[in-house]
Amino acid sequence: MRKCLQRTGFVARAMIAGTLLVAVSSGVNAQQPSNAEIKIDNFIFGPATLTVAAGTTVTWINRDDIPHKVASTDEVFKSKALDTDDKFSYTFSKAGTYPYFCSLHPKMTGKVVVQ
Amino acid sequence: MANQKQNDPNSAILDDDGVDRRGFLKCMAWAGTGLVWTMSGGVPVSHSFSKHHAKSSDLNFVQISDSHMGFNKPANPDVVGTLKTAIDQINGLATQPEFLLHTGDISHLSKPEEFDNVDQILKSATAKDIFYVPGEHDLLDDNGKTYLERYGKNTKGAGWYSFDKKGVHFIGLVNVVNLKAGGLASLGHEQLEWMEDDVQHLSPSTPIVVFAHIPLWSIYPEWGWGTDDSAQALAYLKKFGSVTVLNGHIHQIMQKVEGRVTFHTARSTAFPQPEPGKAPSPGPMKVPADQLKSVLGITDVNYVKGKHALAVVDSTLGS
User: Does A35 touch chain B (CB under 8 A)?
Assistant: First the structure.
């Protein structure tokens, strides 16, 4: 009887430990940096509003046949002129709302919401 | 001009505000065929191309725009060739221009070699004097350093300036910097103050030509085709009997007459863009290769002393 209980205890402890391990490793995965993309085409940022977690690196890709320039309205980030297929990346470490526009075609606007 | 109105078969029928809108719309359809427009007291009167050039003018210049040197997409894989065609066409005009005006987007990406290429091609123009204002494509690097190094001599701020030719006062404005999110083009406080001062002591009979890249009137705000603070600039020009505003940026001809101010945009020498709202966006518009030259062009401008207004003639690079 004692042997059974001991074995059960061992199995139970192993299961608990296993569960804890799984839980811990999930937690670790959630904190690894993630990426998101904004496509520029036809004078439009797509998606116009992008919501991401803090720590995400957002990459703008210009698929338009004319250059564009990504500029944060509050001067937080600014790209060089992006010709077709050029990219610009920015890592958003702080939560907040980041409106931006194309400084060549200012009617083009977008927003990154960082949670 | 007034007499012509009565016995000319093309005579204008004026609306209450003195503008012949029907004739104006007819004009826009004919714009590609070298129709001469002479404005007299705000009334557009048309003549045939050859008849006009038989008259002498006191001042003649040509506007080109939007050469986009460095652009190489399907809408035009050879912007070098079409710019050369434009220069050849200018060199072949019956009346040789005294100088050229380039209303911006000289380069496509502000690269030194792009500016170099344009300079090289323009060397073959008979007219040796060339005046520029930048487009947004010309100021892509640090505060337009490359543009100003080449074309910024004797200019102020982002490259604005004025000069006189045969009694006509030319004002080059820059409305493509410090653009605000969601806004249109902008002249800015410093430039407006400079302009007010620049024209203050000129006699009201001085003909004025203003040139800037983005249109100084609201053509299509959804696509950014307008200037937020141009009303202020135009207010400084209220006293003048003749004001001609020459713009580019939209790669097509649009015209408007408002009182004594004539607004006109030029075709590009590189590629056409769609008419307002006729496409999802204002980007380069592809046309069949054999039609490309018919949607690119130059603008010839004539001034005759004593005449109120300048004659603005558009022609395409081919039919």
Answer: no
